[in-house]
Amino acid sequence: MAPHSKNTPESPVDIEAEERRGLLNTGDEELERDDWTYKGKENPDEPQTWSQRKIAMIALVVIGLLITDHANVVSYNGTDLFRRTVIVVSIDGLRADYLDRGLTPHLLNISKKGLRAKSMKPIFPMLTGLFAESHGMVANNFWDPVSKDEFRYNQVSCVWNPSWWFGEPVRSSHGGVTTANLMWPGPPKTRTGGTSTYFVPWKDKVPLGEKLDQILKWIDLPVDKRPQLILAYEPSLDQAGHATGPNSKRVNDTLVKVDTFAKDLHSSLAARNLTDIVDIVFVSDHGMTDTSHPEPIWMDDILGEEGISAIAHEDGWPSMGLRFHNNANVTKYLDKLTLASEKNPEKFHVYTHKTMPERYHFANNPRIAPIYVVPEIGYILTTHAEGDTGMSKGNHGYDNEEFSMHAMFVAHGPFSVQAKVQHQRRSQDAHLAARANDGWHSTSNDAYIMKTFKNVEIYNLVMKLLDISVYSSQNNGTVGFWDQYL
């Protein structure tokens, strides 16, 4: 999810309520969930953990698998026909090193059968293949000087209005591919009118087992109705991280539930003889860092009460985008902020569109405030009047070079098989021996771990796996990035 607003409720209960009013909330949490009812895979007595605001042939493939270059080519799993199919599950807030806690044996087992990345550098949302300056979602809450309107992540009228979203997500029905969206962030229709074939909007307190049922219900449809791309989104880990911090028991307990869900999904595909036909990709959109005992940076001490009063719009959190009133002496306040940051470079930095680091890709959009104050991890931007009221115990949105901000990537299916074959082929070629590990952090008999990469690359991966790259929208992914694996 995008960085959380500082104006959050004070208690964990209120934090949960605020998150429930977030992306894709229909405003009616009590509505029945149609005909996709949870069948009891989870313990009904176990409390839900929802809070604040998703493959070299190592073994023979299934008999009948057809390998060609067309998305409409059909494979056979022994009982039914299948076109190229990709399932992407986004687990919000799953920090890359959560996989090292000893609580995710199933995700690690899936990654050993397939592959994983050391980590992914985050940008939200990932399936547009765009940086924030390109897709326009520059913060949870922000002012648009063009439309003279304010976007708020917890207002349905904003989130469901496609005019706010510049990107064309892969969930749109590109090239005639049938798609399914299970609570993935974004409006039901894009700016260009694109829609998912199947669309299940955000609902709160949907158990993971119920989401599994819906995914399998789509997988079990006849071939002419079955989606080739299924996107599913799960927010519970992010919510737990915000409410209680990344090192809390609640986060660890939620991590175990998410890992069990991954096992159940993979096992269900295996039971259908689909693990060599269907690509499944588990991703997260960002990590999480502890903010339970932050050191404050007093903005009123820097700007003075007059400067605070001169702020017309304040965007984002934990960073702070500042727009001053038209009659304000902006140069004076920018000089004050810059001088303070130069005296305390270990605490925060101040950027304009001209000085913003290029690696942020966060300047070329009028929605990005002209002055941005960016704290280092361990610090918060606040005033004496606000203090630390309502601050979450965990947060993200800091410098994406920080490893605690990094996301995870685990994949299994035909993609991982081809990637391993590609690695072995390059390793055996004397002329390419020196480049054998290009793209790989490490490889061994039981683990293939890709180097850290930016999550804007995911869009092109999905398009490539579905063999519909010709329909790709313009994006910020690296041309040819996946050629080293496929």
TrEMBL record:
CDD domains: Enpp (cd16018). This is Phosphodiest-domain-containing protein. InterPro entries: Alkaline_phosphatase_core_sf, Phosphodiest/P_Trfase. One of its GO terms (biological process) is nucleoside triphosphate metabolic process. SUPFAM superfamilies: Alkaline phosphatase-like. GO terms for molecular function: nucleoside triphosphate diphosphatase activity; ribonucleoside triphosphate phosphatase activity. Pfam families: Phosphodiest (PF01663). Residues 1-10 have a biased composition (Polar residues). Residues 1-26 are annotated as: Disordered. It comes from Gymnopilus junonius (Spectacular rustgill mushroom).
